[in-house]
Amino acid sequence: MKLKRCPNSHYYDGDKYDKCPHCSASSEPAPAPKPVFEPAPVPQKEPKPQTAPAPQPAPQAAPQPAPQPPKPAPVPQPAPEVKPEPASADGWTCSCGGKNTGRFCSLCGKPKPEPVKAKTEGNTWKCQCGTENTGKFCYQCGARRPETAAAPEVKPEPAHVPQPAPKVNPEPAPVPQTTPEVRSEPAPVPQPTPEVRPEPAKAPTLTQEINEARFTGNLDDAKSRAGARDEGATQIIFDEIGDDLVLGWLTMTNSSGKGKVFTLTDAKNTIGRSDPENKVDIDLRNDRSISRGAQATIVYDPLNKKFFLQSAGGKSFVYVNRELVLTFNELKPYDIIRIGETELVFVPLCCDKFSW
Amino acid sequence: MQCEIRSFIGTRSVQEDCADQCRTDCGLFVTVCDGIGSRSDGGASSRLAVQRFIERFSGFDGSDFPKFIISAAEAVDAEVYKTYGNNCGTTAVCAFITGMSLYWLSIGDSRMYILRDNRLRQITTDHNYRYVLDLRLRKGIIDKETYNKELSRGECLASFIGMGGVDIVDVSMQPISLREGDKLLLATDGLYKSLTEGTVYDIISADDKPDIIADSLMKSVMECDFPLDNTTFALIDLTKTEEVL
After folding, report:
1. Can you tell me the distance from the alpha carbon of A133 to that of A154, in angstroms, rounded to the nearest whole number?
2. From the CA of A232, how many Å to the nearest CA of chain B?
């Protein structure tokens, strides 16, 4: 006979019973209400006891003496690996249920919620119940995220994505190759979705598709794009031809525009003051002392990697380091160009040490 | 899928166009090249280019067409340049159809069109001086006056194979998906300078066998009563045909 006392102050024989026969509380200092709940599985909403100190990767090593209620039962949740979300690195699910990868929902046009960005790898955590999460709470059991990393404010949405979410690509992406050819309209969403809203589900037209697929431009650019294709740099359209490479900069150093920067991207940039007929690249519009039109041209010689300031024959005087430019002058780093009342410092990017 | 190629010398003394197709396990490859008329050996360059493209394609494993075709274009360009000096060259438009996916490459002013849903769309860009002028105008490098003045030379080629370093290319970085019933047309400038797009559309949208359509397209070109350039085209009909063994 081993006399024991339960937390509710009942005495009983510890050899015969391992719990108090009166109130079925264990004699050990276990929390009293525990056994009461034991028979009925705790609804999964009940927050998990915070006592489990396991960091994220502890799968099921629950340190409680009491057996864990069989939590995952009610929700038919696939194993964490099968979750749809990791499939595309930054895919997201809109509140309308559409699955997207672009910045706007292809179904309802809603912008992508900010925090989703943070979701890309590294920001997921594993709950003690074994579920991988991104939000502050486990969407499976409701446990709070351990205080390791700043938890992004992601709604635990991904859990209940309806599985046949339309696989619409971000921009007017090409229809997946496998699509059957039976479609009659040029823009089908590959799979019927539970709730397709007809209006915004605009599928790519053939023209869009062509523009997406096409690259027009320099062969070398095409080469690097073709090489880098795997990293997702796939579609390039005409307007984005990469000849906007920086060659150098001009910075205003006096007058009201002090600090303003002009980027030189073309081999020839005109400087002056624009008027509707004569646009100039570098428009010193606030300096009324400059005549309208181009006053000078900054020329970059890509072969010798040199810059020149060429007079454009305008009415205003153009100086480099207080020397009047009548034909052209070579520009050296930090030369000061003066037109009208404006002074600009020239800083090259392309030089002997570097060029595109 | 059936590909019909037609070629016509026009009113010129030499035929400088060349075209060919090649079918491997990967798919169908078609190329149409237009030797540059004002240069001494245009016909030889276009034939060399076609031959080399086809040779290279027969060794292509089907994995990464954009990469393959760009390096092929570079190599052919270097060879044409080396063989014929800097006095000649050729345009090139190539199409590669694998399954129901279409890839392409174009250098110069030969064109590729796709016919679908009662519309004829030009897929490629013409790499001529007009293209350069458009680009410059849009970037604000030139003004409208200069643009108009220069436009008289707008048809001059700005990029071609054999220039020893191709400048501008059109290349598909990803395929577009084709559909049953689509038709593709690869053509040299002789075709689109003699027939309007409307005429071309009327002819090729006919519900006929591709060889009949190709013949009637060729016939319409021949019936033009003005001086004609070399005219060559390839018509690809995506309608499934019984494979004849």
Report:
1. 9
2. 11
